[in-house]
## 1
Amino acid sequence: MKITLIGSGSWGTAIAGRAASNGNDVIMWSHSEECARGINEQGVNPRYLTQYELPKNVSATTDIVKALECADGIIFAVPSTHLREIANQAAPYICETTPILCLTKGIESTTGLLMNEVIGDECGHPERIAALSGPNHAEEVCQGQLSAAVIAAEDNDVASFFKGILLAPEFRIYLSGDVIGVEMCGAIKNIIAIVCGIASGAGFGDNTLALIMTRGLAEISRLVHARGGEALTCMGLAGMGDLVATCTSPHSRNRSFGHAFSQGTSLEQYQSQTHMVVEGAHAAKSATELAHILGVDAPLTFALNDALWHGQSMQEVLTNLVDRVPTEEFYGIIE
Ligand SMILES: NC(=O)C1=CN([C@@H]2O[C@H](COP(=O)(O)OP(=O)(O)OC[C@H]3O[C@@H](n4cnc5c(N)ncnc54)[C@H](O)[C@@H]3O)[C@@H](O)[C@H]2O)C=CC1
Ligand SMILES: O=C(CO)COP(=O)(O)O
């Protein structure tokens, strides 16, 4: 198969390698000449996962038309803030029956659309769009460390197609029909991971981190349920699995950013130092908008949104959170 991978960050690079290791010819589209040249000439992405040698059947280009020529399957792995613009550029060159897989985790601000929905909006035929999510740090997947992911699609054939492209003994893939649930979990767990990073940076202990993760999972479940997903998905790889991986791993950019933020580093400073996306920061804003529209209580999301985008001090945010009176443990999830 010929697989086109749109994006050349850490996750795109690791997934390009995974697909190519299964014998597929992978062409990566990069917005950066430097990345495309490094991949073609050295077989290594010079900016992300720089120690990882890509299989020989991976090439790269900055020409999106060339990248999409004769694609049997297309994978989007660009940050959420660039997804619409890039899907719009790609759309005229994508055949209407070509299956598409979305790796991006986020919610679009102002529209409240999930990432597969943004691609569907631009490229049409949403039934051929799947989403992959789960506890998958690119740094470990590219080393072949045992991992698992879920691929969700309305059409089981589309999910199965991408399972065939990516499956390996060390990369287990489960299927789901709950695209909304899988996408919502992937977006919101990044918010909770930033809050965990802030708490750990501020000196809170393991009890507090477990409290944030558990109440975070309840918050994710309420949002999933209200957006039309299945609360059970929150118990799976995209929910509980990714929440644990992102809230606890030193690989997580969201958690590390939270830690740095608690020490006074701004989002701009962190992103310009690392050249990496902190999806949870953008999701804090878009999920707040969405929660208000859906009428869902999402205190951790609101708190992070206040701290990141409305200049509220960490002390004020914390006081607001602990001033809340604890109520029924599972309100708003099961009717
Ligand atoms: N890194 C990981 O382990 C995982 C990442 N993801 C998700 O995958 C998505 C992509 O993240 P990463 O690959 O980690 O990115 P990254 O943080 O490693 O790299 C940043 C990406 O932004 C791209 N970029 C920067 N400016 C751009 C522009 N003007 N136009 C187009 N692209 C531009 C870079 O080429 C690069 O692809 C995110 O939504 C992330 O949440 C999901 C699972 C695992
Ligand atoms: O989604 C991820 C792991 O599954 C990556 O998380 P970070 O963006 O926090 O590194």
Note: The CA atoms of residues 15 and 119 lie 19 Å apart.
## 2
Amino acid sequence: MTKLSVNINKIATLRNSRGGDVPNVVQVAKDVQKFGGQGITVHPRPDERHIRYQDVFDLRPVVYTEFNIEGNPIKQFIDLVLKAQPEQVTLVPDAEDAITSNAGWDTIKNRDFLKEVISEFKRNNIRTSIFVDPVPKMIEGAVETGTDRIELYTEEYASQFAKGNKEAVRPYVECAELANKLGLGINAGHDLSLENIEFFKRSISGLLEVSIGHALIAESIYLGLENVIQRYLKLLKDS
Ligand SMILES: CC(=O)[C@@H](O)[C@H](O)COP(=O)(O)O
Ligand SMILES: NCC(=O)COP(=O)(O)O
């Protein structure tokens, strides 16, 4: 089964653009779950340009599905996650000034650092996932860090798929086979959409979870949030 975790960063972006509390991120998280979303993802960034650290604490009591907090494990982020106790933390090596996440971890260079941070989260019963490019060496390196899961960075797949290049899924298929063999759980995310999700899901064996935000919220403008979530759930069904 592949779970749909809805990333609500963009709801916070919209709210922050006016300085008030519309739309209310807590209400949206409740509605996402009511509409069938199987998880809520947030990616608080140090400048709090969308999800604020306080949002994480406000969301914690209402997220009864699976709370996934993503981010670069700087001290402030580690403290936040340990306090909020989500079901999953996803570590992403994004620079502070990056518009959005734009690369996976070099799991070889950062092995010792990742090992230390991951063991701290695992000691606190928080499942760990690390964001990686679909490169076999990085998957092998991920095992060494002790992480429970990897999140495959799907930007390249999404941009190639939009150009009609379905072959772009191949490195993901190979890395998923390797991850399955090595006992790593597989998540995926970034730029997944109603257009490209079905082919990805059908291609990747053992895909446990996708986190989708930007496209899902954009699609909801035309189709409505409940309808869009239902469409994703249908496309993610095991055949
Ligand atoms: C980790 C990842 O893939 C990102 O898509 C991210 O979580 C989205 O963050 P922004 O909403 O800040 O672009
Ligand atoms: N981990 C990826 C995520 O949460 C959502 O990414 P996107 O759909 O906003 O690109």
Note: The first strand starts at residue 3 and ends at 7.
